[in-house]
């Protein structure tokens, strides 16, 4: 493994022991990488010391992409050839967006009872277009309710501790939110949560987007485009959230794997530790971003035509009024929508 990083580059290192660290590249050789300003991505705890990682313990290295699509904090005067850098090493998110999601993971709001903050959270979620939704609990399903309900707006993660509420019935305001046909609920492998909410609480989860099913549809199309009649039919497998984030956003798979199974007995332990809350937050914070990525991939042809339309406008040096709009042109690739 060879590297080509510049001092100041923000890197994510996935190690053979499943630990994942993020830090700024400071120095390196063919056999090691030195990072400063390091963060343990499992606990989100900062590490003040300078850390050295050796080649034999590094599984993968990812680069946090900057807002303009280049490496972050470039300084060409101090570079060291230590992995060949290409697009496969770069996180597929702008640097600012990646940093925002990392901050959201730690700045969650936890509710063990319905207080003023709870009311404000419900009001905020009711004004959202998309909400990430995750159910957590010991073997939850048709006969067992969830212990934690994690919801994520575009800018805030909320953890509702239903196990601690001790309510006889499912909270009415959460029920209204989940059943709203106007708010899209985004989740991964949502069927288990749908069954639990319906059979245990008679809550009907409406207007959903399942990122696992969307990934299957994208993969089916990819397989169909590459297969020939002489090749065997390829089975499309269900992918975990960590696998989907790795494939579509180039995240290290260990980042989400460390959060654990959504049906683990650890979600029932009380008091809920801060590290456990962070892991719950981690399972929800990327859902809307993943949904947007998958949605754009599924509608790639449509967005391509739309971009062709707008490009025609930008290419015109002067404004010319359209006498007639020919809708058939759109079907044929949209070269000129104005008919003289």
From TrEMBL:
<feature type="domain" description="3'-5' exonuclease">
    <location>
        <begin position="156"/>
        <end position="296"/>
    </location>
</feature>
<dbReference type="InterPro" id="IPR002562">
    <property type="entry name" value="3'-5'_exonuclease_dom"/>
</dbReference>
<dbReference type="GO" id="GO:1990923">
    <property type="term" value="C:PET complex"/>
</dbReference>
<dbReference type="InterPro" id="IPR052144">
    <property type="entry name" value="piRNA_biogenesis_EXD1"/>
</dbReference>
<dbReference type="GO" id="GO:0003676">
    <property type="term" value="F:nucleic acid binding"/>
</dbReference>
<dbReference type="InterPro" id="IPR036397">
    <property type="entry name" value="RNaseH_sf"/>
</dbReference>
<protein>
    <recommendedName>
        <fullName>3'-5' exonuclease domain-containing protein</fullName>
    </recommendedName>
</protein>
<dbReference type="GO" id="GO:0034587">
    <property type="term" value="P:piRNA processing"/>
</dbReference>
<dbReference type="GO" id="GO:0008408">
    <property type="term" value="F:3'-5' exonuclease activity"/>
</dbReference>
<dbReference type="Pfam" id="PF01612">
    <property type="entry name" value="DNA_pol_A_exo1"/>
</dbReference>
<dbReference type="InterPro" id="IPR012337">
    <property type="entry name" value="RNaseH-like_sf"/>
</dbReference>
């Amino acid at each position: 493994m060879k590297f080509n990083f510049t001092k100041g580059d923000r890197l994510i290192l996935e190690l053979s022991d499943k630990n994942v660290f993020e830090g700024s590249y400071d120095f390196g050789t063919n056999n090691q990488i030195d990072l400063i300003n390091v963060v343990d991505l499992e606990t989100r705890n900062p590490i003040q010391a300078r850390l050295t990682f050796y080649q034999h313990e590094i599984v993968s290295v990812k680069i946090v992409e900057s807002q303009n699509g280049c490496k972050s904090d470039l300084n060409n005067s101090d570079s060291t050839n230590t992995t060949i850098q290409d697009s496969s090493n770069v996180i597929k998110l702008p640097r600012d967006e990646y940093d925002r999601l990392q901050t959201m993971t730690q700045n969650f709001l936890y509710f063990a009872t319905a207080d003023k903050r709870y009311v404000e959270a419900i009001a905020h979620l009711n004004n959202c277009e998309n909400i990430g939704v995750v159910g957590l609990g010991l073997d939850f399903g048709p006969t067992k309710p969830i212990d934690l309900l994690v919801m994520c707006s575009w800018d805030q993660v909320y953890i509702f501790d239903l196990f601690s509420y001790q309510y006889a019935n499912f909270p009415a305001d959460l029920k209204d939110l989940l059943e709203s046909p106007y708010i899209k609920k985004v989740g991964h492998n949502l069927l288990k949560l749908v069954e639990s909410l319906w059979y245990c609480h008679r809550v009907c989860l409406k207007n959903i987007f399942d990122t696992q099913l969307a990934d299957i549809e994208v993969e089916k199309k990819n397989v169909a485009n590459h297969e020939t009649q002489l090749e065997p039919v390829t089975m499309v497998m269900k992918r975990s959230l960590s696998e989907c984030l790795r494939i579509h956003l180039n995240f290290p798979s260990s980042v989400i794997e460390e959060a654990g199974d959504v049906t683990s007995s650890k979600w029932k332990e009380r008091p809920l530790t801060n590290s456990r809350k962070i892991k719950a937050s981690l399972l929800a914070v990327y859902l809307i971003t993943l949904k947007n990525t998958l949605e754009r991939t599924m509608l790639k042809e449509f967005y391509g035509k739309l971009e062709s339309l707008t490009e025609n406008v930008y290419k015109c040096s002067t404004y010319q009024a359209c006498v007639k709009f020919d809708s058939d042109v759109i079907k044929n690739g949209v070269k000129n929508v104005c008919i003289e």
